[in-house]
Amino acid sequence: MTHGRAVAGMLLVTLMWSIAGVVTRQLESARSFEVTFWRSLATFVCLGGYYAWAHGRSTLALLRAGGRPLWISSVMWAVMFTCFMVALTLTTVANVLITMALAPLITAVLARFTLGHPVARRTWAAIVLAGLGIAYMYGQGVSSEPQHVIGTLVALGVPIASAINWNTLQRSGTSVDLVPALLLGSLISAIVTLPLSLPLQASVHDVALLGLLGLVQLAIPCVLAVRLARHLPAPEMSLLALLEIVFGIAWAWLGTSEQPSMAVMVGGSLVLGTLFVNAWVGLREARA
Question: How many angstroms separate the CA atoms of 91 and 261, rounded?
């Protein structure tokens, strides 16, 4: 695969990832954990079908081959799936996506203590600036809209789980295919959230939309992203992944008139600008 095609593929991935917020806002009766349950179940069915077609009876052998790192990765994917959808039911799309964007910074800090990887000065500076941006975004919400703060705290579980996931796989010293981890993670998420979803209230309309998310927003782009990681350096993927935030906020704004507040616009711009510069410098260093 050429570099240009890999970049085009990653752009498609971010576009597909970005539809979660605007689609979730079209739901009629599904709420909170039930939203997560149906999307995770749909993802498991789609990925299970993919594995049955691609690997047949050898699927179980592939799952066993992953060992402990695969199971830890699966649990972290389950946390990410669950926290993301629950957070979308509590706060705005912009709040969730910008909070999720902290994943590379949290990963870098965690790698410093678990793997001994040095953290560049530019990354420490990015952590401080991004923290200021987040604090500014939610400063007013603490007193006026506590639900948004709760939603943000839930959304914070996504970058934290992502950082643990990446560092665990790096520390294992083995090559673990993340696609089986996605399969198991979606199953774990569905099993854990089912009791919390009862009694199920989703309409046929809601189940159809969440099934669409399971296929188009999660299963297909995540499989593509794992494959594209073989052709794109990590800094470049992190840089391109930031487009999910831009696309996601734009979809929510155009599709539901969910206009970000001025605090979110200012604080979010600081966060995104900081992440962009940090990722861009990291990409240049990787190519040097």
Answer: 12
- Stretch 181-207: mean pLDDT: 91
Distance CA 49, CA 180 (A): 12
Alpha-carbon distance of 133 to 274, in angstroms, equals 9
Token duo for residue 217: 């927003």
Residue that has been written with the tokens 């200021």 in this structure: 132
Element (DSSP H or E) covering residue 268 = helix 262-287
41 HSE (CA, 13 A, CB side)? 17
In the chain, count of helices (H) and strands (E)?
Answer: 17, 0
Q: Are 219 and 43 in contact (CB under 8 A)?
A: yes
Q: How far is CA 189 from CA 35, 86, 216, 220, in A?
A: 11, 12, 18, 18
Hey, what are 218's tokens?
């999660």
Distance CA 74, CA 161 (A): 10
| Whether pLDDT at 105 is above 80 | no
End-to-end, the C-alpha distance of the chain in Å comes to 22
Q: Centre a 10 Å sphere on the Cβ of residue 233 and count the other Cβ atoms it contains.
A: 13
User: Rounded distance, CA 184 to CA 263, Å?
Assistant: 38
> Pick the residue with more confidence: 40 or 3?
40
Burial of 35 (0-12, 13-18, 19+ CB in 10 A): buried
Question: Closest Cα partner for 10 from 195, 229, 161?
Answer: 229
Backbone angles phi, psi at 157, to 5 degrees: -65, -25
For residue 118, is it left (φ>0), alpha (ψ between -120 and 50) or beta? beta
C-alpha angle 170-61-167 in degrees, rounded to nearest 5: 10
Number of other CB atoms surrounding residue 143 within 10 Å: 8
Q: What pTM value is reported for the model?
A: 0.81
The whole-number average pLDDT for the span 200-214 is 92
Distances (CA, A) of 20 to 95, 112, 132, 196: 13, 32, 27, 21
